[in-house]
Amino acid sequence: MSPRSDGAARRQGRGSDGTWWRGDRRWQAGLLLGSAIGAAVAVAGRRAEQSARRGLVDWPAVERTAVRRLRAAPGSLSVAELAAVEGDYDAAMALIVPRLSAALGVDLPGVAERAAVVDRAGWVRANVASFAQLIERIEGDLLEQIVPGGGGLGRAALALANRLVTTQQLAFLLGFMGTKVLGQYDLALLAAGPADGRVLFVEENIRGTARALGVPVGPFRTWIALHETAHAFEFEAHPWLRPYLAERLERQLGLLSDDATTLGRDGLRGLGRALRREGSGTHWIERLMGDEQRTLFRETQAVMSLLEGFSDYIMDEVGRDLVPDVERISARFHERRERRTSFERAVMRLTGLDLKMEQYKKGERFVRAIADAGGAAALSRLWESPQTLPTPAEIEAPDAWRRRVMGEGAAGSESPA
User: Fold this and answer.
1) What does the pLDDT look like over 28-55, one tens digit per residue?
2) CB 242 within 8 A of CB 192
3) What are phi and psi of 5, to 5 degrees?
4) What are phi and psi of 198, to 5 degrees?
5) Tens digit of each residue's pLDDT (9 = 90 or more) over 158-216
6) Is-contact 256 293, C-beta < 8 A?
7) β-bridge partners, 118
8) Coil, helix or strand for 408?
9) Cβ contacts of residue 255 below 8 Å, gap of 6+?
10) At what angle do helices 152-178 and 120-146 cross, to 10 degrees?
11) What is the pTM of this model?
């Protein structure tokens, strides 16, 4: 190479051996920048992974978002207004507890003292805690599948996006339910050791519903209190019931956490079918389940139908002596349940809340058929043990339960239409 060409090569950063990049400052800067970007991506990936593994749901954000939505709902009450009606509920519970205890033959000490008047935000806070307890049982296993250690920035970013969506979905669900729920027997189903629940009355919704129904709010409060106190009877008078349901819930959660790889894809397909109202009578939620999970789900649904149906039956039967004009209140309330808007029906189907409405209907038909045929003796057998609970098929056919449990030959069919 000539002196001229050699000098030109050096000026261009190219050595005589062709390794031009060694002297090129721009190339060196590029290598340094690339290394820095790689290190930054690695650090960002680790940080994103750490953030993603903090949980499947941002529970504080769920609570904030749901409460913010409910604050804007009509009929909100101040702390002073809520406190002003506590005496009304105390008086209602003072009437209900002894009357219900006499009708069912079981004492319920302490239930009245565990009743509280809350606003919609208070109801949300109670249920955020319950939801978080449930998710916590499966969170570790699911996170291992969704964000495995060393999975990188891509997996972590996807998990963070999923957490954002799930957080918004739960906030919407709680915000929606928070305008509908009238009362709740709040029970920590998966708590360690024995634990009694507390009765919550969502006064804003109770007052608004009474106004919409055109019924006096005082008797309506008593009627709702009967329903929730009957739930207290179901669990507190029968200590085997909570662990029985908790064991089934634990098994369902365990099956859910075994494999999360297809859950998102199958969930989207199920939602699509639900929107198009496709399917052969099986709820879209069930179509996401395996055989064992579906069996557990249906068994649990049968028990929940019994719980809700029994409470509905009690609020009408015992309410005849406690609630003025209870027949009119009950008729208008049940009519209103059927008059859902298209939006409400869509939301309830997509979230599974329509199953809750089915529990009320099927359960009340079942319990009323059992009471009509066998009276108080038959009703008491319902709560004797897990073996006397109705099966999913028996909820649809009360006479089958009577033959199995009561040893009766039921003439004719009592199956609901």
Assistant:
1) 555 444 544 444 444 344 454 455 556 6
2) no
3) -70, -35
4) -130, 150
5) 666 777 888 888 899 999 999 999 999 998 887 766 678 899 999 999 999 999 999 99
6) yes
7) 202
8) coil
9) 290, 292, 293, 296
10) 160
11) 0.78
